[in-house]
């Protein structure tokens, strides 16, 4: 039996390492082995800790009855300085549930599929309708991005990211040759906007994170604008519909499969199993070929290649979102002192942000790869 003990805050300081392996079958045995490896200071900290096994808080359960699985993760969470009775467990439970609960995971898949169908329909309705659909996608993505990060930086970073979205969309739509060359300038200007947003803030904190998050949000929006460039090219109406449907179906299939087959896990602590991305990719390829059949400009083989490109990116981003959301949730739940915990309102914000991010970010990031494949196939 092999897994990982991850130490946070005071436990990390006492252990002298951020993590170490366990080879025991129960939590009690793993903790006893950890005590034997370290000094009395570590043992004293461990006695005051709470434990989360594979994102499930242990609470008051007997540690001898908590079984550890192969590839599992045990988070060792010290209490806050001066805190009440085990506030960490409650905060961590809320954050973990927000980040990775089956209901939230499935909701993200449903949202992604619905948004993908809307994009496909908008492509056939005309460029103005698709422009509106992409702008709504970008707005939801920006909202989910900053809700998940929880920077408490005011509206400035989100405004800069949305301004970048509008600029990127306008530049792509106005480009006579469907070129994306000017998008680099949009991302460059977002750096200036991010710096300005931080300068006008009151009580500045986490400035570097805020700048990075703002520029990343602008880059996500610029990526989504690539769908407009794909549609403007030869065969673009059908190509956008194919990649959107393929990616949306891949997301929904992967999330549904994870509900029944979450093992083997893709990474320790991640409630995403290996069968899910493979299933999603197969669905994307099949639907790509199927949707391309009625389109005069797309052969089924072309549709399958577009579905492959969109599906690969969608399932990879989907897994990355799951890992990226869950880890900060645990870290913010632990914090490093008073005021760094995840409160109930933050947990709810994290849950909603994770749904938006999980459903919409894959659709934004499939666009550049789909654009490249589409131009190669259809030019």
Properties at a glance:
single chain, 379 residues, mainly alpha, five-stranded mixed β-sheet, 13 helices, globular
Summarize the structure.
The protein has 379 residues and is mainly alpha-helical.
Structural commentary:
With 379 residues, this protein is mainly alpha-helical. Helices cover 69% and strands 6% of the residues. The chain is built from 13 helices and five strands. The chain has helices spanning 9-15, 27-37, 40-47, 87-100, 102-125, 127-149, 156-174, 183-199, 207-232, 236-260, 275-292, 300-334, 344-378, and strands spanning 3-7, 19-22, 50-53, 56-57, 72-77. Strands 2-1-5-3-4 form a five-stranded mixed sheet, with helices on both faces. A hairpin with a 2-residue loop joins strand 3 and strand 4. Helix 10 packs across helix 13. The radius of gyration is 23 Å and the shape is globular. The model is unreliable at 81-98 and 328-343 (pLDDT under 50).
